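Support case: zinc ion complex. Customer-provided input:
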Amino acid sequence: MSGEHNELLDAVDELTRRVVLHQTVQESRFTCIVYDQSLLERLESEIRFSLSREGSKSLPNQRIPLNSGALGLFMRISSQVTDWAHGVKATVYKGDPARTLRAWYVTWTQTQREPGEVAGRVKLLHSWAASIRRELEPPRQKDLPDPCPSCGATEWWRDGERYPRPLVVESPRNPERNLIDESTANCRACDKRWGARELAYELETTINLDRSE
Ligand SMILES: [Zn+2]
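Agent response - structure generated as follows:
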């Protein structure tokens, strides 16, 4: 197996392999290994969890939106993996893209592939893993002390409670490229949205985003 295929297998593993969380050896005869879910399984769990939250909401104003980002991502990955498997006549396991991806890998690598083609698949698989990690880790939020430059509010209301500091900046935990470019801001009083840089410009201030927590 070539080096490129090793890289491809690593990329497939990153999405489909369960991570060993804990390992204990008891009495030297038995080994107990606890597995965490794979990235794809965690994405599915996130979708199921957000669907059950949606179904169990008690009051209309307590609605928590379905994580449509996670669902869209899962569907995109599933459909691409299914196409790949069909392309090489590998088995498609319905509703189990991880298993289908592994089946595709086994069949696809039996034929000599161009290095560029392998590299393209590796890159796409890594980008899926990064997108799943972003979906699973909610963004960091930071309140700003300034009044809203759009509506002038210095407070906002939720469920009859008054809160100070209506402006909030949301930053991804694992930015793809640039933290400030991927951060967004909104006013919880008037619901206006900005890019973080755009809001900083309107406020003529510097927004400090802390990556460590
Ligand atoms: Zn506002």
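Strands lie at 20-26, 30-35, 140-143, 155-158, 161-164, 167-171, 184-187, 193-195.

Case will auto-close in a few days if no follow-up is received.
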